[in-house]
Amino acid sequence: MLKRKEFILGAAVGLTFAAAATAGGVISWPGAHAAPAAAQAGRLVPSAGAAGLAFAPPQGAPLSFADIFQQVAPAVVQIDVKTRVQRPAGTIQIPGFGAVPIPGAPRGGSGEEGEDDNSTTALGAGSGFLISADGYIVTNNHVVENAEEINVKFSDGRELKARLIGRDPLTDLAVIKVEGSSFQFVSFEDKAEPRVGDWVIAVGNPFGLGGTATAGIVSAKARDIGGNENPYTDFIQIDAAINRGNSGGPTFDIYGRVIGVNTAIFSPTGGSVGIGFAIPAGIAKETTDRLMRGEKIERGYLGVTIGNLTNEYRESLGLPEGTKGAYITDVTAGAPGEQGGLQVGDVVVSLNGRPIEGSNELTRAVGAVKPGETLRMDLLREGRRQTISVRAGTRPANLGAAQTEGGDEAAPDAPAAVAGEKVEGLTVAPISAALRSRYELPENVRGVVVTAVEARSEAGRLRFQPGMVIIQANGRNVATVGELRAAVEAVKTARRPGVLLMVRTAGGNVPIVLPFAKSE
Known about the structure:
By secondary structure, this protein is α+β, with helices and mostly antiparallel strands. About 15% of the residues lie in helices and about 35% in strands. The protein has helices at about 20-25, 65-70, 140-145, 280-290, 310-315, 335-340, 360-370, 435-440, 460, 480-495, and strands spanning about 1-5, 75-85, 90-95, 100, 120-130, 135-140, 150-155, 160-170, 175-180, 200-205, 210-225, 235-240, 250, 260-265, 275-280, 300, 305-310, 325-330, 345-350, 355, 375-380, 385-390, 395, 420-425, 425-430, 450-455, 470-475, 475, 500-505, 510-515.
């Protein structure tokens, strides 16, 4: 799982080999006795280090990172924050044990009139780095979010109070400032792109151990780490160890240039396992420059829910092999996308002439435009290419905060099957006033409603349930059972293995490929 704030510090286990083992010939040290490589076809012979240095790095690698660390360390700072959090009623806060229940104390919520404040002070720590001589500091949004007090510790022992200048939750970046001048600072490298395999150095404050340097390489680029927290960032993956407290600290190249801002790790334990993620310098510089100017970060918005056009979906829709794009699964009523003519089932293949290969690319391309700009979109609808223009709106600040509660489960007391026709293991019927009321379907939902599912059918295996609504089949809207049946037959005639259905569930629209039953 990805960890930003919560990590576990495990005990370090060292391995010690007895000297006697080597004397007895138990351990053979590769390279201890140099000998000419055997002339063997296809054998790769490692290149030797510098003359006289058995473990010298190859040409291009630094002999040490000490000079680089000494150069950049004065610009890296430790950030300590204080926040207020609500503690559970009937508990007492004990250092090292957290909130401990008080025997006999009443449980339940707080906030009754006349009650004491039930909040407590929480302490947090992270890292940051100076990017100007007059005290501007870059860090992560999650380090300073909701902070009531921010203190900055410098490598020379100084401590200064800082104030928040601005933050952007969607890139997890923030800018704070300390008062003063002539601070030593570092710069973003937003022109040259680091390559996979290039050396990197992470400097920060892991577990409160300020001034810590770790080294590694760029392990991968353009990583999507999932979730809705950072939809506009292609992360750099590094294997330099980063842990709790490194958040907001810089990743340097071997020239001391900032190529990323450390923000997350992937770890099953909470500690570093060599998979860390940094926000690329290009994104970080653009965002922090705007925050320093006092600008509000606004992004373009369409109001559509999208997914990737998988091979399974592409095959079910009969699209040519290699077709790529972002598949629209839902359109928000009244949003710019609906006003511009986007529909559920559209596949966006380019935006303003730029090819779109997947949902993340479309999200970032739309987010990069200014609200009010016109977006020219090429899309596939019912297999035919079309071009439409949509005027971008402004992305709501709380988008994604209000999610539909509940899952796809039908209500426990929902009635069993009602009248309908069977199609591929599903009993379906047009939406009537009775069915709309029974399954609590909004007035704007159109399609055919599932009223029963054969347990041993493909539909049963895919967990279709009564109350789901099939709104599209084979990329076309369906309002009657006849239209659904015709769409299924058209796909069978084309000899495709299954039909792509757009299904309305309690959690939103979901594309599902329903395979056809195989003939015995």
